[in-house]
Amino acid sequence: MANQYEIVSDDSTVCASPRRSSFLPFHRPSIDDGEIEEMIDTLRSGWLTMGPKTLRFEEQFARYIGAKYALAVNSCTAGLHLALNAIGVGPGDEVITCTFTFAATAAVILHCGARPVLVDCLPDTLTIDPAQVEAAITPRTKAILPVHFAGHPCEMAEILAIASRHNISVIEDAAHALPAAYHGQRVGTLGDLAAFSFYAGKNITTGEGGMVTTNNDEYADRIAQRRLHGISRDAWKRYTDQGSWYYEITYPGFKYNMTDLNASLGIHQLRKCDRFHAKRQRCAALYLEGLSPLDEITLPTVQPEVEHAWHLFPIRLNLESLTVGRDSFIELLRQEKIGTSVHFIPLHMHPYYRQVFGYRLQDCPRALSAFERIISLPLYPEMTEEDVGDVVRAVTKIVAAHQRSAIHG
Ligand SMILES: *Cc1c(COP(=O)(O)O)cnc(C)c1O
């Protein structure tokens, strides 16, 4: 394109800055010939569902993370459900998780018949606050379900210490956290179990899909069977010479397996994971540099002991110094042709949790405050440095046009 920018007049007193000519979407997956050819190969192979490619993807994923087992499933939600199921979460149990997360994190606790106990986040990384976890422990607590929000690992040392003191399990919601690390150790190997997401918008994608990782033999065995109807695949070897048609149901299982079609994408996405991560880090660094002059914006922080997966780049508006709120800011960015999103509407604010469990908005004041201010900017490997520059310019322009005067308030 010869002229990427058009000058658009603006009735504000701030001089007009160039506006993008095309809309920058919030996300675009990175798919190339590797995925496409692998998918065609699978279609021609005659084997579409879980089979050799799923096994290959699992082996490669386990090696990449440094986990003993990786079990492919059809979503992270399914993976979290299987993880809770594998440790025996059931009616009467409580599982502590962070309110600042997606619907799935707490829904799976309810699917087990247990109660999700929602606690507030830390003010800086917006990950679960270990002090609030400790305070929420009861004799019914069965597990802690920390969410590595935006790809920044939770305070795992403290969380694991609490879990070990109370003899309860830790299941990591690692949907955002490939390839994050904590003190040099990959996320997905820190707790008892972890679940990753390969949904279209996540750091690597299989369209839809997920992976459970664990170092525990027993949990891996349960999940391997329960993701596919609870069928004991080795039963015929033990009992008969009848052949492979024979199976035994050892548990009323689920239909949560991955297919070889999805794994075809995963194999190639995983190969590019380090490259994707380097691009995400580069874009995040450009954002941090470009937006740091703006006092009206709070930027994400990174603790020194972590490797951030940079799934999201959430900024927070300092509403006290702006004349527009978060929703208007998003609309102004849309007018600048920048797509954004909001992660998350805290769970305790939703009608279900308020009505069934009696949560009030002020029960998790940090999450409430973060929600009122937060905007996720576009961040993905397909973005160019010019795209990042366009977002920085658009945010800067909107801030300049809507500053609240310190003197006149
Ligand atoms: C995306 C997401 C999930 C669910 O992942 P699916 O693969 O879509 O089931 C769970 N937790 C968090 C925090 C997520 O962002």
SSE topology:
Layout: E1 5-6, E2 19-20, H1 33-45, H2 52-65, E3 69-73, H3 76-86, E4 94-98, H4 103-111, E5 115-119, H5 130-136, E6 141-145, H6 156-166, E7 169-173, E8 181-182, E9 185-186, E10 193-197, E11 210-214, H7 217-226, E12 231-232, H8 235-239, E13 248-249, H9 260-271, H10 273-291, E14 297-298, E15 306-307, E16 313-317, H11 326-335, H12 351-357, H13 365-373, E17 374-377, H14 385-401
Parallel strand pairs: 4-5, 4-6, 6-7, 7-10
Antiparallel strand pairs: 1-2, 3-11, 8-9, 8-15, 10-11, 12-13, 14-16, 16-17
Helix pairs in contact: 1-9, 2-9, 3-4, 3-7, 10-14
The structure holds pyridoxal-5'-phosphate (PLP).
Pyridoxal-5'-phosphate is lined by residues 75-77, 101-102, 104-105, 147, 173, 175-176, 197, 199, 210.
Structure ligands: pyridoxal-5'-phosphate
CATH top-level class of the largest domain: Alpha Beta
- Widest sheet: strand order? 3-11-10-7-6-4-5
The whole-angstrom Rg is: 23 Å
CATH superfamily of the largest domain: Type I PLP-dependent aspartate aminotransferase-like (Major domain)
The chain-level mean pLDDT equals 93
Say what the CATH topology of the largest domain is: Aspartate Aminotransferase, domain 2
Low-confidence segments, given as residue ranges, are: 1-15
Helix proportion of residues, in percent?
A: 25-40%
What does the largest sheet look like? 7 strands, mixed
- Bin the strand percentage: 5-15%
Shape: globular
The computed structural class is alpha/beta
Number of helices: 14
Instruction: Give the tally of structural domains.
Output: 2
Q: What is the terminal-to-terminal distance?
A: 44 Å
Secondary structure: number of strands: 17
Instruction: Return the CATH architecture of the largest domain.
Output: 3-Layer(aba) Sandwich
